[in-house]
Specification:
The complex is a heterodimer of chains A (about 280) and B (about 280). Chain A is α/β, with parallel strands linked by helices and about 280 residues long. In chain A, about 35% of the residues lie in helices and about 25% in strands. In chain A, a hairpin with a 2-residue loop joins β5 (about 80-85) and β6 (about 90). Chain A is globular and about 50 Å long. The relative contact order of chain A is 0.19. Chain B is built from 11 helices and no strands. Chain B is globular, with a radius of gyration of 24 Å. The interface of A and B includes residues 108, 148 and 153 of A.
Chain lengths: ~280, ~280
């Protein structure tokens, strides 16, 4: 049975000690100055993510979920509030918080293996160990045969798997995934959902997964954070207690997803009014 | 080895998928014959028209293509054309080499420092618009009517476009690549050498290609304007003009054009092709 919670603006009811939480987001706000005056991408957003959790964030365009990811990754700093990772404030990018983007962001002049090795090299891993690790991770995403392929020789789904291998290979504390499967076809997405769940179970990495696809969020997440737009705030947080491994056809999944989707539908008139 | 798997029908295409599914693209490798015959055919057509025009005029006004070819051959064999071409080539090598190194370094620096960019770039663009011929009198005043003046003009001809091309290439790097690199821990010099330069390389090479053309033109024009005072193709043209040797003029034109095409085809075009193949149609 899924448990629905009204979370309001202060985050979930369960309070985790900030020092222990993989991520502790404390009332962050971030504004953008636009031609029509500044908009609040995020307004007083708070969230705690526990070690090993897989938290999904869903919301309509403009709800600030990509901004949230930038703040978690340290690519941007909040205008107000703080972001902590294991008690330390996030002030910049770090390989402890690896990002996987919607567009693969692989280096096109390198091979698949080269891309995975690069991060390891930056982390100070020696040449032989790098190669071994890279090959291991490519094997885990079922791409060991394509280790020497150049990026343009791989399909979109394969490139994302290389990006995932690159992310996991660094054994980050947190993996931040920004709509990584949105640009892929349904079959590839299904495949990658399975692969991601396997890797997550095997490594216990904390994952924050941003998506606009509600069913995907319920499929993957321990919890789903539903956001509203203009300004970006938490609408509610839903615990997903369904057993794993999960599949899209699971009946419980559809029920939870339906509740969340009605949230998104409510968003539409508000967005139109805001001139989105 | 290669893994082309087609996106499923109805797949949402991102710009990655737009760029090349190897299974769909047929690159017809043009054979040597296919590459050489069309330009030769065109040359033959031009030669025909030229001969018709030249038939009614004396050789001292408009020599026939055959006359020019024969004279070019003679010059190459024992008229000293070889060393002249060699001299031009070596001046180019040094001049272009200097402007390439300085230009790329400058372009990279400007890309990194917006303040310096705002300060310096307008002048680079201005320099680029200036016909190098205008520089020659200035160079002569400072350096005399010498090969040094010619070298200065050559370098000045190429430097702005190489610097600007490099800067633009760096600005054109998708920001997401830089973000990814930063998250992976690349910084400072590593970022520059391992990420920025490889990412910008196709654009940098384009800038170098343009720079080369500018340099070559500046070189020949420089020698021509300074006047017949040394070895080099431009000086050769100046001499031919002074002596009224139209056949030599055409011979020089032919050789200059051939040099330009050779450097482009054998050098830059090859390099660009290799870069594009590696990245799948340009980074």
């Amino acid at each position: 049975m899924a448990v629905l919670q009204r979370a309001g603006r202060r985050g979930p009811v369960v309070h985790l000690h900030p020092a222990g939480a993989a991520l502790h987001v404390d009332g962050v706000s971030r504004a953008y100055g636009g031609k029509r005056g500044s908009t609040l991408a995020l307004d007083g957003f708070s969230l705690d993510v526990a070690d090993g959790e897989l938290v999904c964030v869903v919301g309509p365009s403009g709800c600030g979920k990509s901004t949230l990811l930038d703040l978690l990754a340290g690519h941007q700093l909040p205008d107000a509030g703080h972001v902590y990772a294991h008690g330390e404030e996030v002030t910049g990018p770090s390989r402890r918080r690896m990002v996987i983007f919607q567009e693969h962001a692989l280096f096109p002049w390198m091979t698949a293996r080269g891309n995975v090795e690069f991060g390891l090299e930056m982390a100070g891993v020696g040449k032989a160990a790098r190669r071994e690790q890279a090959d291991l991770w490519l094997h885990r995403v079922h791409l060991e045969q394509f280790a020497d392929s150049l990026v343009h020789e791989l399909s979109g789904g394969m490139r994302q798997r290389v990006a995932i291998a690159r992310g996991f290979a660094l054994e980050p504390e947190v993996l931040l995934m920004d709509e990584p499967f949105s640009a892929l076809d349904a079959q590839t997405r299904d495949l990658l959902h399975g692969e991601l769940q396997d890797l997550w179970t095997a490594t216990g990495t904390t994952i924050v997964f941003i998506t606009h696809n509600v069913r995907e969020a319920v499929l993957l997440g321990d919890r789903v954070v539903s956001m509203s737009a203009h300004p970006g705030r938490i609408r509610r947080i839903v615990d997903v207690d369904l057993p794993r491994p999960r599949h899209m056809e699971d009946p419980g999944l559809i029920d939870i997803a339906r509740e969340l989707m009605s949230d998104l539908r409510d968003e539409v008139p508000t967005r139109r009014a805001a001139g989105a | 080895m290669v893994a082309p798997s087609r996106p499923a029908p109805g797949a949402v295409l991102t710009h990655d998928d737009d760029a090349l599914d190897p299974a769909l693209v047929t690159t017809s490798a043009t054979s040597l014959a296919q590459r050489i015959l069309p330009p030769l055919g065109f040359a033959a057509a031009v030669a025909l028209l030229w001969s018709l025009a030249a038939a009614r005029r004396p050789d001292s006004v408009l020599p026939s293509p055959w006359t020019v070819l024969v004279e070019t051959w003679r010059l190459l064999l024992d008229g000293g054309f070889g060393p002249i071409i060699g001299r031009t080539a070596s001046t180019m090598a040094v001049g272009f080499g200097v402007s390439a190194v300085v230009g790329v370094a400058l372009g990279l620096a400007l890309a990194r420092r917006p303040l310096a960019d705002r300060a310096v770039s307008p002048y680079l663009i201005g320099l680029q618009s200036l016909p190098s011929a205008v520089w020659i009198p200035v160079a002569v005043i400072f350096l005399g009517a010498s090969s040094r003046a010619v070298m200065a003009v050559t370098i000045l001809g190429a430097l702005p476009s190489i610097a600007i091309g490099t800067r633009d290439a760096v600005h054109g790097i998708p920001p997401i690549l830089l973000r990814a690199a930063r998250t992976l821990g690349a910084d400072g010099r590593t970022m520059l050498v391992r990420i920025v330069v490889p990412a910008a390389l196709p654009g940098i090479v384009s800038g170098l290609e343009h720079g080369w053309a500018f340099a070559f033109r500046s070189l020949v024009a420089g020698e021509l304007i300074i006047g017949a005072s040394g070895a080099g193709l431009g000086f050769f043209v100046a001499t031919a003009r002074d002596e009224g040797r139209v056949d030599h003029l055409f011979a020089a034109v032919l050789v200059i054009m051939l040099l330009g095409v050779a450097v482009d085809r054998l050098g830059f075009a090859r390099l660009q092709r290799r870069l594009r193949e590696q990245r799948g149609f340009g980074a």
